[in-house]
């Protein structure tokens, strides 16, 4: 019985010390640096309005030929965006898929940033946006962004309700 108690105590202490090892998640100030965009995955709903006719479609999107970097500074907390994002959107119109490549798609403009809890707030000349920090490690940054994008052309309007996952790698 003493051997059982000894083995149990040894097993319990081993589990206690190995189960409580901290993850390698960095503090919010570790976002400082230059990050290269490695992947973009989008999903959402699009509403196409032309005159009185309204059509809706679900869509997905995937980045291609990504050439975008964000350099994040501290004191002042500003960031600089350089490069382009290209996205292939795939719309589902009642079971039919329509693909639309968007080259040099809009991304956030350079501005200032703040982190509170797991939210990254970016402010530039014309808007304030909030992204959720998915992962922040020494080499990787994942942002989950939910936003609305509206494009008006002659006689029509397209409104996208988007949820995007943006994965960056530290340069």
Question: How would you describe this structure to a colleague?
Answer:
This protein has 171 residues and is mainly β. It is built from one helix and nine strands; from the N terminus they run H-E-E-E-E-E-E-E-E-E. The protein has an eight-stranded antiparallel barrel with strand order 1-2-3-5-6-7-8-9. The longest helix has 18 residues. The chain is elongated.
Proportion of residues in extended strands:
over 45%
Strand order across the largest sheet:
1-2-3-5-6-7-8-9
Head-to-tail CA distance between termini: 58 Å
Rg, nearest Å: 22 Å
Describe the secondary-structure layout.
Blueprint (H helix, E strand, L loop, with lengths): L1 H18 L13 E18 L2 E20 L5 E16 L2 E10 L5 E6 L2 E5 L4 E9 L3 E14 L2 E15 L1
Antiparallel strand pairs: 1-2, 1-9, 2-3, 3-4, 3-5, 5-6, 6-7, 7-8, 8-9
Summarize the structure.
The protein is mainly beta and 171 residues long. The chain contains 1 helix and 9 strands. Mean pLDDT is 85; it is low at 1-25.
Considering the chains and any ligands shown, give keywords for the structure:
171 residues; mainly beta; 1 helix; 66% strand
